Amino acid sequence: MTDASRAPTGGAAETLRSPVASHNEWDPLEEVVVGRLDGATTPSRHSVVSCNVPPLAAGLQRLTAGFRYPQALIGPAQRELDQFVELLESLGITVTRPDAVDHRRRFSTPHWSSRGFCNTCPRDSMLVIGEEIIETPMAWPCRYFETHSYRALLKDYFRRGARWTAAPRPQLTDALYDPDYRPPGPGEPMRYLLTEFEPVFDAADFVRAGRDLFVTRSNVTNRMGIEWVRRHLGPDYRVHEIESRCRTPMHIDTTFLVLAPGKALINPEYVDVDHLPDVLSSWDILIAPPPDPIRDPLLRLTSLCGKWLSMNILMIDEKRVIAERHHTTMLRALESWGFEPIPCDLLHYAPFGGSFHCATLDIRRRGSLESYFDR
Q1: Of 23, 121, 358, 362, which one is the catalytic site residue?
Q2: How far, in Å, CA of 135 to CA of 117, rounded?
Q3: Cα(29)–Cα(153) distance, rounded to whole angstroms?
Q4: Cα(21)–Cα(15) distance, integer angstroms
Q5: Percentage of residues of the chain with pLDDT beyond 90
Q6: Of 108, 154, 280, 303, which residue is the least packed, with the fewest Cβ within 10 Å?
Q7: Which one of 23, 251, 326, 327 is the catalytic residue?
Q8: φ, ψ dihedrals at 116, nearest 5°
């Protein structure tokens, strides 16, 4: 029997209770996808990669592009990832994982070819809105087929009643990237690598607060991508843009996070608190403390992320939050704001693209769709 013949049809589908149901970043977490390190390969050379990672890592990436990550990086990251999964399961959370993939295999379209990257960060490639999972049109060519490693999960969720959507698959031709781009310097107007040739976006440039979403335009998310999400969701949702002062923006979850009803966390280096969307005027705006410095020279050389990865935290519910053990200043700040931080190690995940928020995708949080702002 084929997959299609087993899929529910007609009225039968309407009686299913979707296993996917997540409306915000803080309702009690019941099920989550956690990424994998298996087969991780250094991103292939491309301007959209090099412009979005720290200068030291960008130089190393150009030299090692397309090669497997060395065991010296994978080993410590794998040990921390295993401990993180054990922690989630000890909290009663169901953890699912993508398939292991050989990301070094080359693939092509009619316009270009590339090797893969890894499936460490499901938060980038899929956006969960209520009972719907949206596969995103990512701007890195090496991530073009990344969601294929999640297809077994996606098909299972679909059969059980979830909505499954894929945004228009991008061409990723040279027309999408500004050939004259260079990062803006201090005092210069903001500019982006991406043109408006076609809609592209990473899900990690969005955070959810019920009927309101917040997004940053970045070097992986263009205006067309934001507009696609806005039109796709329709009038029941509002999409608000958070202006980032980061010179090379990529992903909102080290810039702005909604932690609980009425509480938002901002990066004071990237966000002007006086220029937030008006809907946030009644919310408590929590200013992230300076991140604790990373002393490990190998991590400083290989991290694909900026120093504000200390903000990349995962809410378990409105009070409990998993945060990096190394960033003690952030742990103390969370506690002073009334949260209950759960320290965990994931510092060595940075060479693979993120930390706790990046490494996970909320599948089910216990709660309903609500509006937390005046409409």
Answers
A1: 358
A2: 17
A3: 18
A4: 15
A5: 89
A6: 108
A7: 251
A8: -85, -160
pLDDT at 374: 84
Whether 291 and 312 have beta carbons less than 8 Å apart is answered as: no
In angstroms, the CA 130 to CA 206 distance is 14
C-alpha to C-alpha distance for 120 and 61, rounded to whole angstroms: 17
Count the neighbouring beta carbons within 10 Å of the beta carbon of residue 76.
18
Per DSSP, the residues of 198-243 read S----GGGEEEEBTEEEE---SS--HHHHHHHHHHHGGG-EEEEPP
> Rounded mean pLDDT of 327-353?
97
Of the residues 202, 205, 212, 253, only one is catalytic, namely 202
Q: Please report the sign of the dihedral spanned by the C-alpha atoms of residue 39, residue 42, residue 43, residue 49.
A: positive
Residues 72-129: tens digit of each pLDDT: 999 999 999 999 999 999 999 999 999 999 999 999 999 999 999 999 999 999 999 9
- Token pair 């809410």 is at which residue? 315
Pairing of strands 113-114, 94-96: unpaired
In angstroms, rounded to a whole number, what is the distance separating the alpha carbons of residues 8 and 159? Answer: 6
What tokens were used for 220? 């992986």
* pLDDT range class, residue 14, cuts 50, 70, 90: low
Q: Is 202 a catalytic residue?
A: yes
Residue closest to 133 by CA, chosen among 259, 32, 261? 32
Burial of 172 (0-12, 13-18, 19+ CB in 10 A): buried
- End-to-end CA gap in the chain: 48
Checking if the pLDDT of 375 tops 80, the result is: no
Q: Are 228 and 255 in contact (CB under 8 A)?
A: no
Distance of CA 283 to the CA centre of its chain: 24
Predicted local distance difference test score (pLDDT) of residue 72: 95
Question: Would you call 251 a catalytic residue per the annotation?
Answer: yes
Residue (of 341, 348, 299) closest to 316 by Cα position: 341
Residue 196's DSSP bridge partners are none
Place of tokens 């060395």: 70
pTM of the model: 0.94
**Closest alpha carbon to 194 in 215, 204, 179:** 179
Distance CA 244, CA 297 (A): 28
What would the two tokens of residue 327 be? Answer: 């960033």
